[in-house]
């Protein structure tokens, strides 16, 4: 299926490096915040929110670590996938555009992995804020903004790929 596709050694762009460094820095800040707030977080934290942003599921505060771990694991898996753009599905790959298409697809994975990590870090912080009583729930815009952000990013890179055929 992927036979015959060139496996190019394309250096990472400054934007890919910047996005990775920025999201890792925010991850570290989120972890440090969770550690420093740990004693002040009640034993029960929200684990689910309804469409209005109100918590409707509760669990142990250790669930906050699960959110962080899910974000990190997703980020790591997508980082590995990012290194193999020749295995992605393309519909207009030619010898003339292969490098451009690989860069575009790799950047799409990079943007998505960082958006997902930031969402998990944000949700960890938001759940701890609700548990501490600082906030009553999530804004109704949290999930739509995340979905529009991810969908918009994917659409942008697909449209760009089509234009570069």
Automatic annotation (TrEMBL):
Keyword Transmembrane helix: yes
Keyword Transmembrane included in the entry's annotation: yes
Coiled coil location: none
Annotated TM spans: 21-41, 64-81, 116-134, 140-159
Keywords: Membrane, Transmembrane, Transmembrane helix
Xref: InterPro entries: DUF1648 (IPR012867)
Residue stretches making up the DUF1648 domain: 26-71
Official protein name in the record: DUF1648 domain-containing protein
Organism: Fictibacillus nanhaiensis
């Amino acid at each position: 299926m992927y036979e015959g596709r060139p496996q190019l050694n394309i250096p990472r762009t400054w934007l890919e490096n910047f996005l990775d460094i920025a999201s890792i820095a925010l991850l570290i800040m989120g972890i440090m915040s969770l550690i420093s707030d740990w004693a002040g977080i009640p034993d029960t934290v929200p684990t689910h929110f309804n469409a209005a942003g109100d918590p409707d599921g509760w669990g142990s505060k250790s669930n906050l670590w699960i959110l962080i771990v899910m974000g990190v694991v997703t980020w790591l898996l997508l980082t590995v996938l990012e290194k193999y753009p020749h295995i992605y599905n393309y519909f207009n790959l030619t010898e003339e555009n292969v490098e451009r298409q690989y860069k575009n697809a790799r950047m799409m994975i990079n943007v998505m992995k960082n958006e997902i990590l930031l969402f998990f870090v944000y949700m960890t912080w938001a759940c701890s804020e609700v548990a501490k009583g600082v906030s009553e729930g999530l804004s109704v815009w949290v999930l739509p903004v995340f979905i529009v952000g991810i969908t918009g990013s994917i659409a942008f890179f697909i449209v760009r790929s089509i234009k570069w055929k």
